[in-house]
Every structure is written in structure tokens, then in C-alpha cells.
Amino acid sequence: MLQTPGAMTCALLFRLLLLTALVVPSPGKGLGPTSRLRYSRFLDPSNVIFLRWDFDLEAEIITFELQVRTAGWVGLGVTNRNARTGSDLVVGGVLPDGNVYFSDQHLVDEDTLEEDGSQDAELQGLTEDAVYTTMRFSRPFRSCDPHDQDITSDTMRVLATYGLDDTLKLDRDRTFVKSIFLLQIVHPDDLDIPEDTIIHDLEITDFLIPEDDTTYACTFLPLPIVSKKHHIFKFEPKMVEHDETMVHHILVYACGNASVLPTGISDCYGADPAFSLCSQVIVGWAVGGTSYQFPDDVGVSLGTPLDPQWIRLEIHYSNFHNLPGVYDSSGIRLYYTAQLRKYDMGVLQLGFFTFPIHFIPPGAESFLSYGLCKTEKFEEMNGAPVPDIQVYGYLLHTHLAGRALQAVQYRNGTQLQTICKDDSYDFNLQETRDLPYRVEIKPGDELLVECHYQTLDRDSLTFGGPSTINEMCLIFLFYYPRNNISSCMGYPDIIHVAHELGEEVSDSMEGMMAMNNIEWTPENIKKAEKACKGAQQMVIIKTIDEVVENTTGWIPEIIPTTRGPCLESSGGKVEPQDKTPAGFRAAPVGLSSSSTATLRSSRSQMPGI
């Protein structure tokens, strides 16, 4: 049992009991105390803890509503990957006499809660009925209190906990952490569902999953036959329950109409190279993801002479327990319509060319890998002028050692912007995400993917490859209008890397073999990272018709994105040591304590629950 200290002094308890709940005006775009919150999720396996949330990107305010099946206190906050120490936790509850208590706190160690000097959470509602305790509050994305974790567009590890009574004690059995992408830009309810929607399933039927750790199963399937142009506007995974822990990812690749395709099911990257044909991803799902609906102005085109008629369905199975006799019928469900969107979309695969050059040293606290894309050959390879690419979404992908990814855009040697990034990547939450704005890529731009790995738990080299214990470094950009380029990826000159590490080699294979000769001290790990970054990159560009062109380039520097100013607290004093070089920005009207109303203490449920 985790204990909060007797550190909860009488004075603090007295202050909590006397706290008057405040109702604040909307922090922008109508997020008031009774506004509908668009996003929701259970945070525990038993579905005891239910979270609703919404946010205002302009005001940089997020609103949470935590509903827990308990008559005790509840808590919600943000933690990090490695330890709960330093976690940001907002706690509250309703006492038997109807008075409420509410406080912005943090964990000073695994067992101890302490109240923040700056109170940055604004209470909007706190009620208890015969079943639930419900707490609703708002907070800034970034406060000036160092005890508050920032809310960002990264994967957030949401911490939820509760008690059976009003004694603030942390209990491991009632404390849960769930990875969530909180700042989702588009909610499915905001998008149109055409009345003429047709469903089509692409699936492998009754496939006996091998007892191997890793299997890549591929088959070729026809797309729907339609008499006129249609658009695919949504996809979702189609799995039975036992598959959810064994299916690592599912990809659908468009095939060129001139391709000669094999029949049956086989290893995607095995003895028959025909089963690796078709390389332009059109939709994809990975572990932790859910359904995805395209924005209302884009879709995957079906039914024209330029559209693919066949696809390659690739399913990656991870059977780590080597279970025998497991049959699978997984796949992807497509939703399509004759109500056409404005643009035909495409997917561009970026990153580090997976095999055979990619390696990551063991015992690395941090190791960065880079994959360069140069778009100067796109028009020549496309066979027609390439309009500016408008990127609206993305999917990030590494395996278990991945910690962060980003894609950065350059033009004429100058960094323009970070297209997408996640500094808190979670292998178990891989989903297609929308950008807050469209990113324009012009012919000639360079695109750089950086992947951050950690291998402290490994004592041997990790190589790029298909297995979950191998690694990948990929970012899929969802864009319009569609062109014929399927992928653009890079890898470093491994001969140069080997020479920098003191190994004499004459070809790439010897270069990779030489990595096994290195004593991977922290100094040599950093030396290898620097050598990989400084080596000339080989860039491989591929089209939907399997046409391949190579070029070369050099890794540019990445200028870090500076954080904006923090939000000055309106609920407590900001101590001098809490101030940051970025400075303060004024609290928006919605967080001003000058406009308040008393919330009636009540044991009735909140409206809309």
C-alpha cells in the first residue's frame, strides 16, 4: 500500500475542506462546466475509471472530466515513461457532509503526495452520487509551475487513481497509467458519414499462425469493382479477440496494374520475392490504433484507370509465446462511397531504409538514427508534373527500442518546420494522427526523419529488420493530391561508419559485420552516432510500379523547436524559482479568478453524465 505522508498537515486539510468550488467561463470555443467533451476513454481494465476530455488549441487549455465508481477521492494527472516520481496529479472528492476538496499536487517519490505551491487546475464541477464521484477541471497546456507536466502533441501517459474513502492514500491496485494521444485534432463525430456507404473487407481467412516469434504473412486481394469512381473514406482493423495481442500491424499496399502477382499466402520477405511486390501503402494499422476516418475533402480513389485494382495485404504476427494451433482471420475493413471528395490522397513512406544497414548499439541511453528523403527526382519518376504535396496526417512506427521520432522539412538548405513528432513515443499506441494544419511540400524539398532509441536493457546489437526485436524507423505521411511515389528513404555509408570506428572494411557487408567487433562503451556509442550522422546518405526512391532510383545527400542539422511561454497561474502564487527563460503569458479570460460563481455542494450527478 502506498501512503501519502502525515505530510498532509492539519492546516492543509483545513484549507481543502474550506475550498469553494469555482465555475469558470469557457476557456475559448465554449468549453464551459456543462459543455460536451468530445473525447472519452476508460483508463483501467475493469472499466471503473472513465475519462472525458476536450481542449482549445488557441487558448492552450484542456478540460478533463473524471468519473470513477467510488464514494472516495479521485485523482488525475500526467506521468512519464520511467517512474511515477514527479507525476502531476489533481485530486478531489466530496465529504459526507457535502463539502468538496480539490488540490493540484505532485508525487515527490513513489509514495508521497505534496501540494503544488502554484495551483494551476481550475475546478468546474465535483459531485458524488450513489455510484460515481465525478471531477471536472481545466488546466493550461503549459503552466509556469515546474511540478506540472506539459500537455503536448506527444503521446501522454495519463495517470488515474482513486480511494475507497476520503483519505488521500495511493494504492497500487487502484492506480493506472494509460498512453493517450490527448490533442487529437479531428473527432469522427465531426466528419460526414455518407448514406450510400459500402463496406468491403480485406482479410486473411483461417490462417494458421506459425509458432515462430515473428511472421509476416502476405496475400494479394482485389479491391471492389465499381462502375464509376468511388472514394474510400474510412478504415478500421478487423480482428477477433485472441488476435489483438498477436497482430502487430496490418498494411495495405497498392499494386501497379502492370504487376504479375502470385496467389496464396506466403512469407512477405521470404524465399519468393514476388510476395514483397507492391510498395505503396494506402492504409495501415498498428498495435494500439483504432479506426481512422479521412478528412471530408480527401479519400482513396477507386474505379478509374489510374487506380489500383489489386492490393497486397501484409499482417505482422508476434507469437512470442510460440502458441500452437492458433488460426487467424484478421484484416482491414474499408468504407467507401460514390459521394466524391475533392482530393485523391496518397501515402509517402519516409525513414531509415530498414535492411541491411540499420544498427543500434546495446546499452545506449540514447542513440539517434536518420533517414533522408530528397524529392528532386519525384517529378522525373512520377512521369508527370508533381503538384505541391499537402500533408494532413501521419503514422509513426518503430519497434520496442523506439523512444521518439520526428520528420523535419528543409528548403534550399534551410530548415522550414517540424512536420510531425512525438518525444514520448509508445510502441503500444500507434495510430494515424491528424496535423493541426496542412503542411506543403514542394519538389526539391528535403525531408529528414530522426528516430531516438534506448537499449539499456540489451547486451547485443539491434539490427533493422521485420521482427519486433529488430528495429524500424518509419513515418508515413498522408497527403493529397496523389502521385506515383511510394517511398523515399535513406541510410548512411556504412563503410565510412566502420572506418570512423577504427575498422578496416572494403564493402557494406564487411562494414555491418565489423559492428560486432566494437566494444560498445558510452564513448563508442556516441562516436558511432556521430559517424552515422556525418556519413553520406544513400537515398532510395520507389514508385508504385516498383521503379527505383538512387541519389545521395547529407544529414542537415535539426534546430530544436522552442517552447512557447508558460501560462501564469491564476490559482496560486508562482514562486521566483518557478519562472522560466521563456517568460510568462497572461492567463486568458476563461481562467481569470475575477469572474466566479459558487458551485452548490451536491451528491447528485453532473449534467450530461
UniProtKB/TrEMBL annotation:
One of its GO terms (cellular component) is secretory granule membrane. Residues 591-609 have a biased composition (Low complexity). Keywords: Copper, Disulfide bond, Glycoprotein, Metal-binding, Monooxygenase, Oxidoreductase, Signal. It comes from the Eukaryota. GO terms for molecular function: copper ion binding; dopamine beta-monooxygenase activity. GO terms for biological process: dopamine catabolic process; norepinephrine biosynthetic process; octopamine biosynthetic process. SUPFAM superfamilies: PHM/PNGase F. Its cofactor is Cu(2+). Residues 566-609 are annotated as: Disordered. Residues 1-30 form the signal peptide. PROSITE patterns: DOMON. CDD domains: DOMON_DOH. Belongs to the copper type II ascorbate-dependent monooxygenase family. This is Monooxygenase DBH like 2.
